[in-house]
Amino acid sequence: MITTSLRRTNAPVDFPALLENIGSGKATIAIMGIGYVGFPLALATHAQGYNVIAYDVDEEKVAKLNAGKSYLRGIGDDKIEKMLSAGRFHATADASALKNADAIVICVPTPLTKNREPDLRFVEATVATIASQLRPGQLIVLESTTYPGTTVERVKPMLEETGLRCGEDFFLAFSPEREDPGNGFFSTYSIPKIVGADDKKSRTLALALYGRVVFSAVPVSSTAAAEATKLVENIFRSVNIALVNEIKMVFTAMGIDVWEVIEAAKTKPFGFMPFYPGPGVGGHCIPVDPFYLTWKSREYGMPTHFIELAGQINASMPDYVISRLREAMDKRLRKGLNGSRILLLGLAYKKDVDDLRESPSLVIYEKLKEAGAAVDYHDPFIPSIPHTREHDHLAGTASVALSAKSLRGYDAVAIATGHSGVDYALVCKHAGLIIDTRNVMVQFGAQPHVVQA
Fold it and tell me: Catalytic residue at 107?
């Protein structure tokens, strides 16, 4: 604990000057965690004239950034070089640099534990780092998705242990990230930003910051309301994806093409929004965020049956895909999974991205191997499997090339991710059996060796 005498000063914070500095784009903004969320935010913040400090504990990332090299698909080296040449950007792993920031934005992961409970280790470690450098006159913003109450119950007390007071000496807000990797229609700037704080000064400063960085900043009454907003957005998606996944299983048993039904249903101009089934859900939001609310709701004695059921259905989809594969192999090849050769087509959690976080493809990969199959994968966006939290032993496994000869060597090809750049005509022509979870083979019409899953 840092004593009050080391941090408190008799002079009050010059709030008007701080507000002017942030609102005019002259401030220095530190972004902590330079990944899929922090990296685009750093670009957007720099584009609005701010000085940007990119802080990350990964020194390899820091070195690449300072050398003008990108490590995320979709962000070219030229964008980093442009920031560096402007003289308003540098990356660091040195926490003392945070003292120079007028605002510090936290963009670190918030995964689940194996028991599906919130894992706030990264947030708490980051806040502890900030607290070690915190000075009067700084705005702290948490962007990491979490349960309602986290900012007030976990972040604020850690910062106030320094002796500085929230709303007077430093300022605190929550603004949930809304990044969608691979979405070419929306950029960080064009996506409205929810901004919540628990005191007027903090809210005013956060709105001044995001009001400049993004097209539209939307204020809400509290950090808890902002935290809840992000959860509602992703729970909405989780529940609807679970609905179409369950409908897919039912309609498949009935011999009805669920994709045809969805296309027909979406012609209704009101009261329907199309969602599409798949082999499960992945990414940094949908498989994780709903369980942050289910965990917190238990504190209030309010079980969330509907949300948890949706999570269970989505989590069960890899098993359904494998059951469809096993059934098709038994019926068409008179062969089981044990001793078979399977090609998994697509490892990323969605099309045209290199993001493996919570990908159901990894679960399918593991389960097929457990069943005794020899499994390869092809993914043009993932040349080799990187280190992951849940499947780290797969790190270094390389993507195989697609060719007529290689395709004929597999008993079955399972399409788990519908990347647009894959030669599906080649797959259709030379694969003996195709399990299609993404409906990408529909372009070739009805094919006797293609099975929907």
Answer: no
The helix (run of H) or strand (run of E) holding residue 32 is strand 28-32
The architecture (CATH level 2) of 239-452 comes to 3-Layer(aba) Sandwich (3.40)
Q: Does domain 4-221 have CATH number 3.40.50.1110?
A: no
**What does each C-alpha distance from 287 to 138, 221, 280 come to in angstroms?**
34, 27, 9
Q: Are 107 and 33 in contact (CB under 8 A)?
A: yes
Residuewise pLDDT in 10s, the chain (453 residues): 444 445 666 678 999 999 999 999 999 999 999 999 999 999 999 999 999 999 999 999 999 999 999 998 889 999 999 999 999 999 999 999 999 999 999 999 999 998 889 999 999 999 999 999 999 999 999 999 999 999 999 999 999 999 999 999 999 999 999 988 777 788 899 999 999 999 999 999 999 999 999 999 999 999 999 999 999 999 999 999 999 999 999 999 999 999 999 999 999 999 999 999 999 999 888 999 999 999 999 999 999 999 999 999 999 999 999 999 999 999 999 999 999 999 999 999 999 999 999 999 999 999 999 999 999 999 999 999 998 888 999 999 999 999 999 999 999 999 999 999 999 999 999 999 999 999 999 999 999 999 999
**Strand 193-197 to 170-174 pairing:** antiparallel
Backbone angles phi, psi at 59, to 5 degrees: -65, -25
Q: Provide DSSP, 287-344.
A: TTHHHHHHHHHGGGT---HHHHHHHHHHHHHHHHHHHHHHHHHHHHTS--STT-EEEE
Numbered ranges of CATH 3.40.50.720 in the chain: 4-221, 239-452
- Amino acid 351 reads K
Query: What value, to the nearest 5°, has the Cα angle with vertex 107 and ends 103 and 110?
Result: 140
Q: What is the 3-state secondary structure (H, E, C) of 182-247?
A: CCCCCCCCCCCEEEEECCHHHHHHHHHHHHHHCCCEEEECCHHHHHHHHHHHHHHHHHHHHHHHHH
Radius of gyration of the chain (CA): 24
Tell me which of 107, 166, 285, 428 is the catalytic residue.
285
Nearest to 435 by CA among 314, 345, 319, 316: 345
- Helices (DSSP H) in 87-199: which residue ranges? 121-133, 150, 156-160
Q: Are 453 and 418 in contact (CB under 8 A)?
A: no
SS (H, E, C) 395-424: CCCECCCCCHHHHHCCCEEEECCCCCCCCH
Q: How many CA atoms lie within 13 A of 379 on its CB side?
A: 31
